[in-house]
Amino acid sequence: MSDDLAVNPVAGWEIKTVEAMQAVLLQFSFISTPFQRPDEAQKTPLLAVSVQQARELIEVLQRSVDKVESSGLSSPPGPKH
Fold first, then answer.
1. How far apart are CA 44 and CA 27, in angstroms?
2. How far is the C-alpha of 51 from the C-alpha of 17, rounded, in Å?
3. Domain residue ranges in the chain
4. Which of 27, 30, 44, 58 has its CA 20 to 30 A from that of 38?
5. Under 8 Å between Cβ of 49 and 26
């Protein structure tokens, strides 16, 4: 990962279903500054994904979790003490 990559940690999420639209609605809360508390997190716009997109997202997340877990613990790059 690049050192200049901006990362906003996710502080939570809300998921709703809309059966009439065959959609899943997602909204994430995220931290935008190092000094922000989780209860001050900003929210993304409400995102709608189709059932197929939701299934694909589940699969991609599962593969990513599996990859991270199988890699084991490692130290971040940089000087060692």
1. 6
2. 10
3. 10-70
4. 58
5. yes
Give 4's DSSP letter: T
Measured distance CA(19)–CA(15) in Å, rounded: 13
23: tokens are 């959609």
Stated as kind and residue range, the H or E segment containing 11 is strand 10-18
Write the secondary structure of the chain as one string of H (helix), E (strand) and C (coil).
Answer: CCCCCCCCCEEEEEEEEEHHHCEEEEEEEECCCCCCCHHHCEECCCEEEEHHHHHHHHHHHHHHHHHHHHHCCCCCCCCCC
- Global pTM? 0.75
